[in-house]
Amino acid sequence: MRIRVMVGTLILAVVGNVAGALDPRPSEGDPVPKAVSADKTYGYSESNPVRVGRLNGGPRAAELFLSSLRGPEGQPIKFKRLGSCCFFETPNAWVGGEAPLDTYEVRYKGLKEPLILYVDMYDYEQPSVPVGLTRSK
């Protein structure tokens, strides 16, 4: 049973990498934010997610974006993926024209309640830093 799971996981990884290599869509830009958003809903709302696109396989782009964030005083952050939610229509979905957003919990020293960020790993717009956070230098 364990071998079947490992082989299945390996097959999915190889198929995913081959599909990504054959994808005719161009790569997006850098998932690391250059500026701070002035919109208080940016990243904090399912209707206004951070759009990191599929650069480096989607999840990797989300990790690069989140790893570049800091607390308001430059504190390092910790983040964890909470799961997927909130299906939306996009021409960039892998199958069927709809894709989910991913939600991430963000914490840093001095924060009373964790922040929840919504990330779109299918569409791309140059990401910004959500209000209340900063970026690494």
What's the tally of helices?
2
Give the helix/strand class: alpha+beta
Calculate the terminal CA-CA distance, rounded to whole Å.
Answer: 47 Å
Count of strand segments: 6
Element-level helix/strand string:
HEHEEEEE
Average pLDDT figure: 83
Helix content: 10-25%
If you had to describe this structure to a student in words, what would you say it looks like?
- This protein has 137 residues and is an alpha+beta fold.
- It has one domain.
- The chain is built from two helices and six strands.
What's a quick, concise take on this entry?
The chain is an alpha+beta fold and 137 residues long. The chain has 2 helices and 6 strands, in the order αβαβββββ.
Summary tags:
two-stranded antiparallel ribbon, alpha+beta, 6 strands
Topology of helices and strands:
Layout: H1 2-22, E1 50-51, H2 59-67, E2 69-70, E3 77-89, E4 98-108, E5 115-120, E6 134-135
Parallel strand pairs: 1-5
Antiparallel strand pairs: 2-6, 3-4, 4-5
